[in-house]
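Running this now, will post back.
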Amino acid sequence: MNLLWHGLYSASAMLWETLWALVLGFSLSAFLQVFFRKEQITKQFGRPGLREVALATFLGAVSSSCSYAATATAKTFFKKGAALVPTLAFMFASTNLVLELGFILWLLLGWTFVLAEVVGAFILIAVMWLLVRLTLPKGLEAAARAHVGEEEKSCCHSEMRGAEAGEESFKEKIRRREDWSRMADVFFMDAAMLWKEIVIGFLIAGFLMALVPENWWGKLFVTQETGFVRVVENVIVGPLIAVASFVCSIGNIPLAGLLWSGGISFGGVISFIYADLIIIPLIFIYKKYYGAKAAFYITAVLFVSMVSAGIIVDFLFSALGLIPVVRPSSAIAQASFQWNYTTWLDFATILLIGWFVWIHFKKTKQTDGHKHAH
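Update: finished.
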């Protein structure tokens, strides 16, 4: 019973710590869907060029989303006409180049890991860009975009898209109360699509933290070998551990500290941190959004890019003498309910959710009243 309680507490605390980021990401996604025309998104991200990828990376870095919310927002970009590479670049940057992740990484692992995280992120995006240019099957991107449209129609999104067909400007849309009501509707629709995957992911992460012995993680990777063999094995095993742990975004930094103290290579830690986008719940979300073939392709491209970035970062930082020599003993930082900035952000988030609820149900009540009158 103690382990059960500890697992539930860890899962709940992790959810509390990331609640504000989840709601922020879903809110941004809803805002984009309602207030921006397809032509506006296509103009910025419609081509897989350097400018588009760089802009998508920057926008992702300042969006401050967790993995699940970033996936929902990236889907919105893709549906509105963004090319696949800028879409993936945005999704990756919004989970691995955000400030809060850098702060936690600095506190738990040190500044060299922050620098490696940033450098490796640009390496990963470049590798991903090259892979997509060389391997993207003909017609796959169009099929995935069509699947996104069909999926949203099946989830009753078609009723909300009426204003998109018009030619109203952004200023006109943002002044209309009906569009803010539509944003609340979109927020609830997107959350309804993903809440099961999110809850399952947090529960599994919480119970792994409670049940798995700390010294067990160090037995999963090669520590005795030196050179290329160890680096390659570790950067492959790192993402696989992330997939099995189900921990997303900032939540995997404490576990990364444990892996580092357990003997995994420097590049293995980096590839593990990047792999929050290929955990099993997210793969199912990719399938739901884009279809099975596109989900498999996206997962494969992300995995190869993460492994490649981890290898390059490991050898680059080794050549520069930046890899820390001392591995301090570390433990998985147990999530807890504390009175800090996260608490205030979550309180603000709850107020935002309350506002969405009020708008959504007020509109629903008015709609039911009109139907009853007719």
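The chain has one domain: 2-155+168-369. More later if anyone needs it.
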